[in-house]
Amino acid sequence: MRVRATVFDSEEGKDAQGRTFSEKWLHDGHGTFCGGIITRVLVKKRPKPQTYKIKWDDGSVMNCEEQHIDQVVEEDSEEDNVVQQDNEGAADTNSDIDADRHSYAESTTSYEGSNTDSENGVCEGEEDERGHIVDFGETVVCGSDDDPLRKTWTRIGDLTVNARTEAHDETVFKHLRIDSQTTELDIFLALLPLKPEDLLTMVREGGDRAKDRQHWRLEHIMAALCIIYGGAQFKEGTDLWCLNQKGMMPPPDFGVYLSCDRFGKILRYWAFGVTGDVNQLREKPWEEVDIWVRAFNKNRKEELTFGTDLTPDEMMFAWRGKQGNGGIPHLSFIQRKPIPLGTELKVVCEGSMGLCGFLEIQKGKISMARMKHTNKYKATSACTVRMVDKMGLKEIPMNEETDLLNHGEKRCIYADSWFASVETALACKNDFGWHFCGPVKTAHKYFPIDPIRFTLAEMKRGEHVVFKCNEDDLWAIGWHDHHYKCYVTTHGTTLPGKPAEKKRQDTDTNVNFAINVPRPQIIAKYQHEMGHVDRHNFYRQGILKLHMTWKTKRW
Known about the structure:
Layout: E1 2-4, H1 21-27, E2 33-41, E3 51-56, E4 61-65, E5 69-70, H2 74-86, H3 94-106, H4 126-130, E6 139-142, E7 151-156, E8 172-173, H5 184-190, H6 196-209, H7 218-230, H8 260-272, H9 287-303, E9 304-305, E10 309-317, E11 332-333, E12 341-350, E13 356-361, H10 365-369, H11 379-390, E14 412-414, H12 422-432, E15 435-439, H13 449-456, E16 464-469, E17 475-481, E18 483-489, E19 500-505, E20 512-517, H14 521-529, H15 532-544, H16 546-549
């Protein structure tokens, strides 16, 4: 391609003789155009014009807008040399510009020295740059030649035998018997991170530090818990201790259960944590919060025997804490979230009841880089194996500390694209004894994402393609669902699974109907398991909205 040199003229760019870039370029014998090669097409953002990254003939790299770019053909390059010689030492005239535009309008769109296929408009040799369809039995290589971890993938027909042969188990309570007599309160108290007696101890210790002479009993703790959740049914800003009726609704009058003064003190004493936490804040700035996270993880480990399916994902708390000195140590901003600013956590949910089984606060890039397993795996893989490992579910190697119930369980992890990669799947399977399945988007090192997409481009919606890794028991599966979805998995089959139901509406009759798109069994299983954390977020932020009901004044 080429661009007129006058595009780069500016007052700031004049040299010592007062010449612009185009005048100096012409004086040096380069002509009236700057030549180069387009190396990258940048993402177009409205209303900005399309931009390209160009490597110029002099070796420099610079972005240029589409409106300034002309395509070059061999015949035009000779004519251009004549024009450059005739106009040497002078600026371009309007007649020259019109002549150039006319010649380019009549020229073809092929590149220099290439022939264009009139059927599909693809130049010779361009198929290799775009990719090609992979036939059955054909092998593709992912990774550089000098990379000892590179993978080779061979396209196969279908994955008909499941590598996982163990029975599927559900999550069960260890100490609570679930039957028709079990109440929601029983389940709530069993899963409460800190038992009411521990919460009472924290309040009494906080009262002693504040020299509060009030007497605290267990019924005050239970009443405070009821008020925290009971207040979620009222609008934001409602005075929950109001005694006067407004409109048709009776007054909340929460003072019947606990006075506003006692409730405020309980929240304040809980925020301080147990005795000794305040003295650790200089070394451990998250200590006042970590006590609750550790208690949560310990409770789930003691109360639940986790089943086969596990789903890690991220969770966002709309909790910003106090600003400035002594406030929250780290805030996360994730633009795609409904409430983007707050505290980010990575969590693991089990697949039977959708219970959250593990929490990990994301404390910043530096702090997370010092966590366990980061010296062996990349950040996403280390986070995945660290969370499931801390749940006590490591299955290999067997030793005295390993839970015997985990032996031969072969749990299955279904994670989204932040976690999913070839490295994560191999770390889970080879080092910890778990199976893994997840979609691959950006972390596609060692994964045949381009061969899968180019092969799917020639297939119909609902069809799929399968690649087998020759070095490991690993499969890459592509599924055509308008978008080309690529998955890496260590188990499952590609036999017909439950079709994906796509809801539609007839524009003429407004009648609702559904389109059933065929999909493989392993992809149907993944899409069934992947929504547990999202449902948690919906119930917590969309329905309860505790962060809107109770405003924290101290982090």
